[in-house]
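Thread: quick sanity check before group meeting

JM: Hey all, I'm pulling together slides for Thursday and realized we never actually wrote out the predicted structure for the chain we discussed last week. Dropping the sequence here so it's in one place. If anyone has concerns about the input, flag it before I start.
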Amino acid sequence: MAYAIAIDGPAGAGKSTIAKLLAAKMNYIYVDTGAMYRAMAVYFSQNNVNPQDETAINKAVENVDITIEYMEGVQQVILNGENVTHLLRTEETGKMASLTSKYGAVRTKLVDLQRKLAKTTDVIMDGRDIGTTVLPDAFVKIFLTASSDARAKRRFDELSAKGEECDYEVIKADIEKRDYDDSHREISPLKQADDAVLVDTSDMNIEQVVAAITAIIEDKKQNLQ
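JM (edit): ok, ran it. Output follows.
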């Protein structure tokens, strides 16, 4: 049986950080959905698909297969049997991904591929609508959140440590706006799935969060035995 873990939550909650640490600890595959969008963009670039031509995009996605593997602990993205990891962070790929990720056919295709991966491999996936839309049958669903104050402080501290000038109140206002926008968007709005476990990290460090979610997963596995 393959186990799928869905982690949803608002911006700045630490979803990707936690998901990657959990995947490494539990030997699951962390499904980097952003990397999959970039791999799709690589295909479009390699095949000279016009990013402004939605009809051409819709046709092209039918020929794409993307999966994620790990070699010596490092994520590798495989496009139609070819390792394209080294192409994902190029400027050309980034521009193409930005132009094409808006199309419904691209999202639909990638969601299908993500579900396919989750059926055959133990995975952890994070985002805004993983538990509600992408993996509605996930073994465990986590809704990871923290107060806007806590998230703003973490972001402020992160930017300050890099020597960047920043304003705490501006950061907090931006986070609250993103919360509102994500929760009110028409397609797959951010919301806690009915069967998701709420994990509020406002007063927790990273190690405590990883331990708490690991316990939730292990408890559910024990209950099945």
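AS: nice. The beta strands are 4-8, 29-31, 66-71, 74-79, 82-83, 123-127, 140-145, 197-200. Residues 58 and 211 are 42 Å apart (CA to CA).
JM: adding both to the slides.
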